[in-house]
Structures are given as structure tokens and as C-alpha cells.
Amino acid sequence: MTIASFAKNQLDKIRARGPVSRFGTQYLIDAVAWIFALIFAVLLRYDFDTSQVSWRWLAAIAVVTILIQAGAGWAVYLYRGRHPYGSFAEVRSLLYTVFIGAVLVGVPVALFGTLIQVPRSAFLLAGPIAFVLMGGIRYVKRLIVESLIEHDEEAEPALVYGAGYLGSTIVRRMLTDRNSLFLPVGIIDDSPARRNSWFDGVRVLGTGNDIEAVAATTEAKVLVVAIAKADAGFLREINDRATAAGLKVKVLPPLEEILEGKSRLRDLRDISIEDLIGRHPVDTKIESIAGYLKGKRVLVTGAGGSIGSELSRQIYKFAPSELIMLDHDETGLQSTQISIFGHGLLDTPDVVLASIRDADSVMDIFQKRRPEVVFHAAALKHLPMLEQFPDEAWKTNVLGTLNVLEAAQSVGVTTFVNISTDKAANPTSILGHSKRVAEKLTAWAAQKSGQRYLSVRFGNVIGSRGSMLPTFTALIEAGGPLTITHPDVTRFFMTIPEACQLVVQAGGIGRPAEVLILDMGEPVRILDVAQRMIDMSGQDVAIVYTGLRPGEKLHEELVGANETDERPVHPKISHTAVSPIAPENLDKDRWTERCKQAYITPTPEGGPEAVRSANHESSLR
Questions:
Q1: Is 66 buried (19+), middle (13-18) or exposed (0-12) by CB count in 10 A?
Q2: Cβ of 613: how many Cβ atoms within 10 Å?
Q3: pLDDT per position as a tens digit, 134-191
Q4: Fewest CB within 10 A of the end CB: N or C in the chain?
Q5: What pTM, to 2 d.p., does this model score?
Q6: H or E element at residue 98
């Protein structure tokens, strides 16, 4: 029998005895460490002259010390299985335990040691020696246990991109989990300071530029991206290099999900198109948020939709006294209620069924519930549909917003956040024009009330109902063709959670009548997205160009003409302002006429590009 197999058998026997036997064994080892440390310290003090040692008193002191070790160790959970074996948490508890024993016994010995022929300095030496012995034994056992782990033969060799906290943690998890599907063979990191560093025996082998060479050397099959705040552009670059090297790319869940317990570090998944185009992490300052939400009555319109439901989930974490979720879609409200409260009974005050078009109903709800903070997410958003039915955009996005604003003012709402769109910047579509008016009405309400009424503007959100990615996915699954309006059309993208972080933060950092705009990075070419999705699907799907539809832009804008781009609080959030418009100055006929004044500019590829006048100021009166 080899030493390794013998050690493995002994460890298996200890595990089989159960926790009481296992931690009892640990305590006995610690007791022996104290006895050895005390004897060694006393002999060292007397130059190893055993005739000077009072063995009876030394034995009594040792017994008292190991009894205190048992009590202190139990109190700090050292012998109760709270901490992983050999971890820093266990070492910290071990230090507390040894310190307590050394103080409780060492102080009396220091005072009266000469009376019983025990050196007063005994515990000054014995304490550190005992601690080193106990910690050393634990570390050696941990090394033996980890060296005996037998990984699944099907575990794939993997490179880990990132040598920070997440990277080093995932490397350790892979090495110590016998069921891990991946075995780390190398680490990639772009920091020169980490080059040639080692983490649990796994070496940093190069930077992102070396992926192909490192993959060939290590015969890796998988690249695990372990960077908490990796944005879409960075992930696209890594994915392209990994694909060229023949590596599958895996990503970790977002750090927020790990911290909230929704996901674990081991929940690796294939990289998705959402990761490649939609990740734009924004550091949300909690202190700028909790103050205006905690303990307040918060109402969310459109709470059954994609944005409204995620907003409700994020707001709920900040402990409002009431969360009032309003929508005219009962099924959407039920889904949101289930995601937050774990039930969809629809019989509780947190859900309200109403349409923002009904001014009397909205006013009645506000008078009864008296919200203090409002997030207005209810809107019609599909551009081509509203081109066909502009009256619906006016009724919902303009008059509906006005109904909510007037109800909010009537009950003294202090913070009102209107959710807008990048199509409101230099609008060329019915959707853009209607949301632009909503921004102006919000600015008017801010001036009239003197309260923090503001708008938040951002681009396309990924995964919302009816948005581009689900549509593309359905077309690819159906075998195509995949339709794109124009080969050069670009759009801004962001994930729904990140968009909602901005919306929530706006209420904390925005000023009255402002429009807050997130720096969403570089716009993404839709053709590139389509080609990536087709490549990832493994299918042969044709792409067909249909030409820009009425009201569509070739390239969206976030900041409109004559708008400023100030960033006084957050480096990735712009603050601008729009001119207010009072309700009495609204003129639907003039608005409709202005929206219809389009002109056509021919483009060489992909058909006509439809553009409407951006002179929106004169379109309302």
C-alpha cells in the first residue's frame, strides 16, 4: 500500500466516524500541541535541565490550559464545524482560542510562577509555539486532502481569464471540487504585475494577446472569464480570440447575483449574445439610493412589463414601507408579484390594476395610497406599431404621463422618475416624439412643484418582450430568414438590470427637470449581432435586408441637439436638461402634423433611410 492510499484510507475512516469524532480528534491534536509547547518552552527556559522543572505544577497548568482550550474553542465554533478545515476563518478562530488560553493561564503564571517553579515567561513562548503547531497540522492535513482529490476523467482542461479575487477563487473551487467539470491548467491576466504568479499551483501564463499560444501549449478546451465587471466590448474581444484558439467560452454569473445568493461561483455558463452586446456595468452608490427609498411609499407604473418588473425587484431590496405595483396587464402583475413575494395571489395591496389613460382612476389611486416616490415605466414602445397608430402613442405616452404627473403633484410626491428612451433625442419617429413630450411634461412638473421630477434616457434593453434578441432567436429557430433593416444600422444596448440600476440611481443623484443619460459605450452594428447569433446557433440561416422603416434612424443618438453633456456626479452618467411644456400648450393636431413631415434620403445599400425633422420645439404649439 502506498503512502497516498494509506492517507486516503485514514481520512475516509475519520470522515465516516462523523463530526463528533472528527472534531474530537482535532481537539486532542490541539491538546497535544499545548502540552508539547509548554514542555518545550519550560525546558528552553531552563536550558533543557530537567531537574529544575516542577513536573507536577507543569502538568496541572497543562490540564487547565487544555480545558480552557476546549471551552474557548467551543465558544468560537472551532470544534463545532462552522469553518472549512484549514481556512483563514478557522485560523482566525484558532488564534482567538489560543490567545484566550494564553491570557487566562499565562497571566497568573507570570505573577506567581516563581512560587511554583514555573518560568513566568513560559506562556510568552508556549502560546506562539502552540498556535504554529495547531495551524501547521491543519495546513498539512489540508494539503494532503486536496492532493488526494481525484477529478472526473471527463473534466475539461480550462484556462481562467483573470487572476483577481474571482479568478483565484474559481481556480481553488475547480481544484478542490471532485465533481468539477473543469480542471485549471493556466491563468490569463493582463496585469504585468501578475505575470508568472502562481495560484494554488496554477500559473499565470500570459495576457489576452497570448490566448492562442497558451491554449496550444496547455491543450485547454475551455476559457473561463472570471472578471466581475467585464463589459460587452471586452467580452467580444476575448470571445473572438478564444474562438480563433478553438476554445469554448464560459462566464460567471454577475457579481451582484453571487453576493445576493441567486447564483454560485460554480454556476458557469456558456457566453451568450447578451454578454457580448449588453454588459455595461455601472457602479451604483448605495448611499445615494437607500435614503430616498427606505421607509417610503413607492409606486411603479408599468410594473408588469420588463423594465417595471425589474425596477420593482430592485426597489424592494431597499425596504420601502409600501411597494405599489400598477399596470393594466394582470398577467404581467402576477409574474412580478411571484418574482418578489413568492406568490401570485393578486389579492394583496401591492398590486393595482389600472390604466394610466384613465385620469380619474389614476387620481383616485394616488389619493388613496399617497405614494411619496414614483417610477413611471408604463409606455407604448414598439416604433413600427406606433407609426401605424400614432393616436395610441399620444394617449399613452403623452396624456398617460400627464395623468400620472398631475396625480403625483396632487399628493406631494417628492421624487418622480420618468423612464424615457434614446429615441427622444432628436426624434424622428412617433415613439421618439411622444417620449420627448413626456420628458418636457416632466420638466414642467418639476418647475411647478419644485420637487425632484426628472427623466432617465437609455437605449435598447436586452431581453424585454418583443425586443430584437428574442425576435432574432425565434427567426433562427424557425430556420430563417433573419430580417435586418439595413446592413449599417447600429443601436445602443444594455441589460435590463443595469438599465434599472441607472433609473433607481437617478432618483438619488438627479436634479429637478433633468434628463439623465447613461454612457452606453459604442453602438453595436445589428448585422454583427445577427451574424454572431447565427454562428452561435450552428445553423445556416440567410440574412435579408428589408430597408429602414418609417421613423427609424440609421444610428441612434443619446444626447440631442442643443443639449449639454455634463457629468457632475458619475463619470458614466450625463446630466442634461429639456425645455418644459405646460399641458395647456399641448396641441395634438400640430404634433401629428409635425410627426408626418418626413423626407426620404436614398442610401446605396439596403433601401431608403427615413428621417423626420428634429425641430421638435415648434411641434407642440
A1: buried
A2: 16
A3: 988 888 887 777 667 676 778 889 999 999 888 888 888 888 877 788 899 999 999 8
A4: N
A5: 0.70
A6: helix 88-112
